[in-house]
Amino acid sequence: MSTSEPVLITDKTDGILRLTINRPERRNALNDDLIVQLDQAFAAAGHDPDVRVIVLGAVGDKAFCAGADLNPNAGTFGFDYAEPTTTYANLLRTARKTPVPVIARVNGFCLAGGMGLLAISDLAVASDNAKFGLPEVKVGLFPMQVAALMQTMLPPRKFAEMCYTGEMLDAAAALDCGLVNYVVGMDDLDSTIDDLAAKIAKNSPAAIKRGKHALTAMHGMTFEQGIAYMEAQVGLMPLTEDAQEGLAAFAEKRAPQWTGR
User: Which backbone phi and psi does 129 adopt, to 5 degrees?
Assistant: First the structure.
């Protein structure tokens, strides 16, 4: 890839924002520039009323994201003890707060920090050649930041096995574990994601944003805390313009015209 080409390609069409990692020569590994651009893109999307769903993918058919770029010049492992929050941790925080659904388009290897990108996604579709893993221990590291998200996505023993052995899961095993929603052939990857994104984009933006916020807030709550929280949320939903429009459209047997408010 030419140094003049962007490391992140963005495209917004019909309410769908596509963020495409463009470092195929490095298996779409994360360097500091890419991490910062992803952080900024997620932050901007959260304030853009025209964005209804985000598709996070990568160029090529070999790798979604192979993790941090281990090239010494990539700047990925810079660490200032006076300011211990790393750019990657900030990216995970920002993406986690994004109010619209994120779909991961996994087109190959999804490793280490790439698993963090998978974890911040609400849905995931993988090609049948995809591989998933946390190989950090093989180079003397450990998936510390990724663990903050991954530990709630996998059965504890399966997660521990992946962390301690560094071995990979194939696409079928990832589907069985619930890491992805669908596994399809590479030729069907984009059409499957397009269909899924379109189904989300046609629904009420206000309902989805409020719903995603509620689902995220419930993480770590007990049943009693969760049901009390959701009980309060139920009372708020009918106050939105979208809810009023949706109920009116249903009664009048017409398509709703969402405002996102």
Answer: -95, 5
Residue 136 and residue 130: Cα distance in Å, rounded? 18
Residue 3 lies in a domain: no
Read off the amino acid at residue 252. E
Would you tell me the crossing angle of helices 87-97 and 32-45 to the nearest 10 degrees?
A: 20
Write out pLDDT tens, residues 33-80: 999 999 999 999 999 999 999 999 999 999 999 999 887 665 555 555
Question: How many Å apart are CA 172 and CA 100, to the nearest integer?
Answer: 27
State pTM to two decimals: 0.91
Q: Tell whether 96 and 146 lie within a shared domain.
A: yes
* Structural domain count of the chain: 2
219 is in which domain, residue-wise?
A: 205-251
CA 60 to chain centre: 19
Q: What is the dihedral of CA 203, 206, 211, 212, to 10 degrees?
A: 90
- Are 109 and 64 within 8 A, CB to CB? yes
